Automatic annotation (TrEMBL):
Belongs to the major facilitator superfamily. Sugar transporter (TC 2.A.1.1) family. It is a multi-pass membrane protein. It is found in: Membrane. This is Major facilitator superfamily (MFS) profile domain-containing protein. The chain crosses the membrane at residues 18-37, 79-100, 112-132, 138-155, 167-188, 200-219, 280-304, 316-338, 345-367, 379-405, 417-438, 444-467. Residues 24-471 form the Major facilitator superfamily (MFS) profile domain. GO terms for molecular function: monosaccharide transmembrane transporter activity; symporter activity. It comes from the Eukaryota. SUPFAM superfamilies: MFS general substrate transporter.
Amino acid sequence: MPAVVVASNAPEFEGRTTVYVILCGIIAAFGGFIFGFDNGISGGVTAMDDFLMKFFPIVYERKKRAHEDNYCKYDDRNLQLFTSSLYLAALVASLVASKVCSKFGRKPTMQIASIMALIGVGLTAGAVNMPLLICGRILLGFGVGFANQAVPLFLSEIAHSKIRGSLNIMFQLFVTIGILAASLVNYFCSKIHPYGWRVALGIAGIPAVILFFGSLFIVETPASLIEREKLELGKQTLKKIRGTDNVDAEFDSIVHASKIAQQVKHPFRKLMKPVSRPPLVIGVLLQVFQQFTGINAIIFYSPVLFQTAGFKNDSSLLSAVIVGLVNVLSTLVSVYVVDRAGRRVLLLEACFQMFITQGIIGAILMAKLTPTSTLPPSLAIIVVVLVCVFIMGFAWSWGPLGWLIPSETFPIETRAAGFSLAVSMNMFCTFLIAQIFLSMLCKLRAGIFFFFAAWILVMGLFAFFLIPETKGVPIDAMVERVWKKHWYWKRYMVHNTHYDSDDDEAKDPKK
């Protein structure tokens, strides 16, 4: 049996949840809205005939042929590239954003994200040819990469340990709100001819504008200020966000962690050391598992998926709206539960829920959906209900916790670097799924759902044995309270003295 770390013994610092912190969290979380809106908008746009006629006429003709294979009519590499190019760009951007985050702070990184996203939105909405369309997606991807790097770190660092889970999940909550908003936009814009797709893509600029101007009024995190040797400003900021002048204990803890961080000149090299293995392995694999639940295959292509199952264009877009609404409401459940029930309970329960639903969906499609038929209306509705149940499980567990756990488990000296690797892996897996899903659907047919179900089984075992509980543990106390007490990960802490310097220069001053 894996040891479960009990967080009740963790030291607590003074402070309360201030309105200002909540407002800062909401503004920053619009970075998640940008990410979620794009997740949802691309699938709806690629189902619009006007968009297909302009950029993908071959797919449009194939879609109109009644005898075409249900599973293969959208199988087109360029169509997949439209969706996936953003995530490949975000992968590269997240590595650059790590250095920007460390050197300049979380707040400027979010501002850069909003500017790049705005330029990308302009290019995609105004595109007249494929190169402009893809260039816009790439720039939008840079914005997503910068936002996904900075926002979860910002939320974890401004939050008191008692509400860190709930506040951090605001990022994922806004991702789901963005997906829902995109579904609604797709539904109404599909009726605007011939430029509905331009309107849909252009609306993505609204959250970027909100993030840019909103970020002018929020604070930089105390950890980032102290890390960059702005001690007095860091202390004043800490007092402001905690709502009390008695912050000496927490301030000293951050200063101590920052001094250790300053000894580490090469954080990415430090991540390769055994002592960094627990948060690195968990942070990276969470991203792999998050994407291989099949969630983004459903979010990206839910209109396409429902059309494949026999829904008409309007009804498939409306079904995507229902899925988006379920996603938002279920994420709200996580906001309420995560700091009460803990992380592990949510992860394990969701694995069971998602495994069952993926298996049943696969069985229904395998038995009843032939390449040239449609599902009976009653079975089609059951598929939509099962997709919603699957979304519920993901939305209150692996969705938000895939961002929360890596943002709270790395020590300050490798936090930006470690989280950037996690974000990069997330973007890589998102790119991979977006690029291959339609081809996999064509080749595996209903078997694709069994493929994702097998991954869910593996990740359930991983969560049970190797993911510790971090509920209520102060962010700079993870080594003592979590890793050194875990049945497996403690072996990597044997030679550790709170993440001592990994650099040869620190060991030998002559170098």
